[in-house]
Design a protein that fits this description.
Structural class: alpha/beta
Number of helices: 14
Strand order of the largest sheet: 5-4-8-1-9-10-2-11
Order of helices and strands: EHEEHHHEEEEHEHHEHEEEHHEHEEEHHH
Number of strands: 16
Largest sheet: 8 strands, mixed
Helix content: 25-40%
Shape: globular
Oligomer: single chain
Amino acid sequence: MPDLPNILLIFADQMRGMDMGCAGNPDVITPNMDRLAEEGMYFPKAYANAPVCTPSRGSLLTGVYPLSHLAIANDLPISTSIPSIGRLLKDIGYCTGYVGKWHLDGVPRDKFTPPGPRRLGFDDFWAVWECSHDYFNAYYYRDTPEPVPIKGYEPTGQTDLAIEFIEESLKKKVPFFLVLSWGPPHDPYWMVPEEYRSKYKPDKLTLRPNVKLDTKKLLGSKDATFSPKETIANYYSAITALDEQLGRILDFLDENNLSKNTIVIFTSDHGDMLWSQGMMKKEQPFEESISIPFIIRWPGHIPAGKKSDSLLSVVDITPSILGLIKIKTPTGIEGADLSRIMLGCEEKGPSSVFLMEVISTDEGYMQGIREWRGVRTTRYTYARWQNGEGWILYDNEADPYQLENLINSPKYKNIKEEMEAILQWWLKYTNDPFLKGEEHIRQLGLEKLWNEREIYMHPDNPRLI
């Protein structure tokens, strides 16, 4: 198939969409992300459908929602029966590579994923660790079960590997598809080289107006020694560290005359609350948890410097990539092909984004999060619990920091009913019966895998089914 572009999909872990200079945050230093936005298209309304690592990563690589790819909670393995972007592009001649955090093959978190179907088509270059956030003591596997250490800061070593893959693929004279999955700015927040931490003065930072600090921190022991502003400074410093690595890759593409024929995407799997609404981490429908960066560049095809008003979600990424390179979307893909919007041919995107937490786990569970479903429209955010009880309704246009919950406001009764109708449409479209999490586990036949996950993650108090 002639004239296929290279594709470089880079994503951070737990990076909020609002924490870039191009997103309007004056406190965070992101010159290369800003440069990418100036040279491509930026989507300010990009969201994680299931804002937690494994479910979101599964949707990113398959274009289907968690109930379809079966990785419905962290550390549950993804189904290999679903077509993946890696496999689809491999089949049409791409040289495929994956570098970084995987988090799609279950427990233990240091497991080796051998060559074969569980690599989802990333067959040509594999430099992967299942899941770890020890950024100064990192490892990866290649095609044998011997861990290979990364010297220095993990994102720097992973970027070296990404460049190595691109150099190898050029020798084959075929287009490449590379996924580069960095671990930061996911906690431990403090684990960033001092050269980046020194760029930030915590007392100079502006906290979001919805930050509430009188809550349990849910931080690791060393993170807990820092003040909230120091922690947010550390979070920003990790983003700046990633920004520098993004710059290295963009420069490498320029130096090797690859930029014009390479689609570059920068995004994340979900955001981070960081004390907004008095909460931490993810698994929640608030803007800080669901908002992700999404910037895409393809010179000569995608308009430069364009800010799109379209909604976009993680599940749309795979079908949109396929649309850009004119590959027919396989039957069963549930996300939307937004390629015509990306190419500047259309303005209007989806009217809503489907949001979910299929089963509450780990830090979400510790904070009282239960199973919920919701929708994000261009204006409103709505979510409710599995038992039908309303949870949140925000008018994001009038209240961008979600300071006033309108869920029980008589004035917004009609809006609430409209949002519930949209939610019902999504539940029907995705064949989601919206059960209790344990019932979903049983319905999907995941009891054994869930129990293995619980015993590994919470040996002292596993929630066994």
